[in-house]
Amino acid sequence: MPRTADHAERRSQLIAALVRVAARDGLHAVTMRSVAAEAGVSLRLVQYYFDTKAQLVHAALRHLEAQSNQRWAARLADQPDPVEPRVVVEAFLAEALPTDEPSRVFHTVWTSYAVLAMTDPDLAAQPFVDGPNHLEAQLAQLLRRAQDQGRIPADRNPAIEAARLLMVTHGLGTSILVGRHTPDAAQAVLRYHLDRLFPPA
Amino acid sequence: MPRTADHAERRSQLIAALVRVAARDGLHAVTMRSVAAEAGVSLRLVQYYFDTKAQLVHAALRHLEAQSNQRWAARLADQPDPVEPRVVVEAFLAEALPTDEPSRVFHTVWTSYAVLAMTDPDLAAQPFVDGPNHLEAQLAQLLRRAQDQGRIPADRNPAIEAARLLMVTHGLGTSILVGRHTPDAAQAVLRYHLDRLFPPA
DNA sequence: CTGTATATGATACCCAGGTATCATTATTGG
DNA sequence: CCAATAATGATACCTGGGTATCATATACAG
């Protein structure tokens, strides 16, 4: 029947435009019109693919969430198994620090969403608790194994260690975003933390 | 000449109204009209005391900042000097966790501002770097003294310890706000961290 | 008292932005 | 090649919200 554009592809383009706007000008600057302009298309097109703004925003959030999950999974899969536990943990956590520009964009937008979710009942807050919970569980698992291998002292509690590791990392992440820490300084703190978690032989 | 209302007092009322709105409905819900309604006054009155919305918002930010500073100062002053260093540190950090309702309100609004400042050049980002910097310096000072007293092992770096202590606390704070941690759970993690910083005798 | 500066109220203007409507342009199966 | 459907464009409507204007009330100095 009609000419066929790739719907999924179109939506991705629009969501990418939204993310760029949100990262550059803030989530409050995301409007149907600004997204259209950023994507170089007409307002009507945005309406065509996303009936309402709420749908657009939710789609973008789900997109970021999926993207995040898949990156974490890749981080884990990329690591060959027999490598040093500390290296695995360090690589794993690097994903949570907004070091390069794409990562910075991602974290800026994600954080904006999280803050929105604090007060907006329409925006599901679940991703912001489920995501970290999942990461923490994976981390705890890694730490438990490292402890079994004797790389972490026996008197440490892997579950709590995972929790505070995530907290340190998250704290450093937002600190970078806000311009208080350089990525390098943040990584130094993180390394210090890991030095104490994995005592040198 | 005219009847005199207490300007400063009026402004405080309006700012308090703004904070309530921001904490309840989000910073995006803060409008001249919503603040007026929340304060139970007319829109015109808000305009009278704050010519523009930007002024109102900036005033509120400064108010929160001042309030924060003074609470931290009180935290420090309240502690008698000869007490256990760990107790001082713990009390100090308790201020950074949104445990009770007023504190939660404060942190919610403060965080909203911080996220805004990430992308809004008009909103000074300085408070969000100066504030923590100052706290970190004070913390480092406390830790140095504790180390001199032998309460903290000599191989620790007080400056970095202060940094990550702040990061853990900040991470826990936002985690509470987002509903991922209960205040109790957060405090447990913090205690665990302090247990390792101040090894038991 | 009374005028004058202060304080408050009512309301209007105007733009931005979400949504809706109508039209027009492709594309492709028959 | 044509009709039907998908895709895109132009534009209008309406509300919310920042700002501006005009009017009124209040209090105190002289």
From TrEMBL, chains A, B:
Q: State the DNA-binding region(s).
A: 31-50
Task: Kindly indicate whether the keyword Hydrolase belongs to this entry.
Answer: no
Q: Where is the HTH tetR-type domain?
A: 8-68
Query: Cross-referenced Pfam families, in alphabetical order?
Result: TetR_C_6 (PF13977), TetR_N (PF00440)
Q: Which InterPro entries match?
A: BetI_C, Homeodomain-like_sf, HTH-type_TetR-like_transc_reg, HTH_TetR, Tet_transcr_reg_TetR-rel_C_sf
Signal peptide positions on this chain: none
> Which keywords describe this protein according to UniProt?
DNA-binding, Repressor, Transcription, Transcription regulation
How is this protein named in the record?
TetR family transcriptional regulator
Query: What are the leading ranks of the lineage?
Result: Bacteria, Bacillati, Actinomycetota, Actinomycetes, Micromonosporales
